[in-house]
Amino acid sequence: MKSIAPTERTKVQRLPQRGEYDRETIYAILDEAFVCHIGFVIDGEPVMIPTGYARDGDRLIVHGSQASRLMRNLAEGVPVCVTVTILDGLVLARSAFHHSMNYRSAVIFGRAHCIESAEEKTEALRLLSEHIVPGRWDDVRQPTPDELKVTLVLSLSLAEASAKIRRGPPVDDRDDYDLAVWAGEVPLETIARAPIADPQLKSPAEVPAYARNYRRPKKS
Amino acid sequence: MKSIAPTERTKVQRLPQRGEYDRETIYAILDEAFVCHIGFVIDGEPVMIPTGYARDGDRLIVHGSQASRLMRNLAEGVPVCVTVTILDGLVLARSAFHHSMNYRSAVIFGRAHCIESAEEKTEALRLLSEHIVPGRWDDVRQPTPDELKVTLVLSLSLAEASAKIRRGPPVDDRDDYDLAVWAGEVPLETIARAPIADPQLKSPAEVPAYARNYRRPKKS
Fold first, then answer.
1. CB-CB under 8 Å, A194 with B37
2. Distance CA B54, CA A30 (A)
3. Which of A67, A71, B36, B88 would bridge B102 by S-S if both were Cys, CB 3.0 to 4.6 A apart?
4. Which domain holds residue B187?
């Protein structure tokens, strides 16, 4: 199935022309970014955690500490709302009213499930690591059984997901196009600077290419 | 009062050494970023909106359309959780387990209030505009009474807020420092590219300096 059927929750209500439901679009946003915000409810009140994630096929993977109360709550399978937002630019219109931002965002509703077996946990952590810093996993000391035990690894189905996208120039009121005001977009991008070596690095190890040339591939 | 007394909700539970409660620290994060995620609860389920904001003294200002069901819900004063996250870098440790990110984040709990009078609304919208693109407001067509009417402007007190910050190199297990693995930080930064003029620009207006040289001042 190419598209994810919008549900009452994922159907974009406000500015429906910005809503997109095909898998490719949603996956491209999830594959380009690597930080999400997870919102859920504790005692009737909203809470939110920013955290890293990876996509594994039709599910999202996140991890955290067994010592975290919020993570333990998530692991119980409470309803969650996950948002991934890529900010692409500031949209400068001719009127204050039509100022906007260009962005690509994905929203997922669902319930997280705990990944239990050490083998599956390790594989999920590898995917997480390779999503955020491709190439790093094979260079580092692997998780020990004790480290796996104190790590919660959760998966969330992407069955109920949607994207919302704005691109392009401002859209002004017809009469405003005659105003002598500059209008357009200021593109924004997150870039990596030169790596900073750990001062405690013992041997003068060469900076690996994945750190030296770190960049997120533009997926859409 | 310099510090915001942590409440049960804002006290950083997990890795408490990363929690900060002084106003200067929280304000600096809020003043550098301009996109927040607002989480709240509808029918017992979590929902979340990414949106622009500005700080006005000890309150946060957001706005949205009167036509947005989510915004109207917020305007009713339901409990909200607002998160602002600045990602500063990837922390590459010698073990998979100690990989981390450097970030500065702020969390605010509270209830939003509607700003009602046209005068206060206009001033709040000016602050929002000047926070996101300083210098823009005076160049553009100002909001009309009808535009103000369809715009919801909300304020949220910063009384219940906290910050969580991680900086610096990885922290590895003692034995791992002997491993011949490069370790350190890959700094990340959001930058602006050259402005793209609206193709419908009639006169060849000069790109204003605030768009040509757009950058977020590093506040902390």
1. no
2. 27
3. B88
4. 16-211
Scanning every residue of chain B, which has its alpha carbon at the shortest distance from the alpha carbon of A85?
A: B50
How many other C-beta atoms can be found within 10 angstroms of the C-beta atom of residue A180? 10
What is the domain-level CATH number for residue B57?
Answer: 2.30.110.10
Residue A136, in any domain of the structure: yes
pTM listed for this prediction:
0.94
- Separation CA B133–CA B57 (nearest Å): 18
Name the residue of chain B whose CA is nearest to A152's CA: B97
pLDDT in tens, chain B (220 residues): 467 777 777 777 777 777 778 999 999 999 999 999 999 999 999 999 999 999 999 999 999 999 998 899 999 999 999 999 999 999 999 999 999 999 999 999 999 999 999 999 999 999 999 999 999 999 999 999 999 999 999 999 999 999 999 999 999 999 999 999 999 999 999 999 999 999 999 876 789 999 999 999 888 7
The shortest CB-CB distance from B195 to any of A103, A184, A208 is to A184
C-alpha distances out from residue A82 to A65, A146, B126, Å: 19, 29, 31
Q: Quick one: pLDDT at residue B11?
A: 77
| Structural domain contains residue B126 | yes
Quote the minimal CA–CA distance from B107 to chain A in Å: 8
Is B4 part of a structural domain of the chain?
A: no
In chain A, residues 75-114 whose CB comes closer than 8 Å to chain B: 79-81, 83, 85, 87, 90, 92-97, 99, 101, 103, 105, 107, 109
Does residue A3 lie in a domain region? no
Q: Domain count of chain B?
A: 1
**CB contacts, 8 Å: A40 with chain B:** 46
**H helices within B21-174, ranges in order?**
23-32, 69-75, 118-132, 145-149
**For testing the chain B interface, which of A92, A138, A149, A167 should be mutated: the one with the most B CBs within 10 Å?**
A92
What pLDDT score does A102 carry?
98
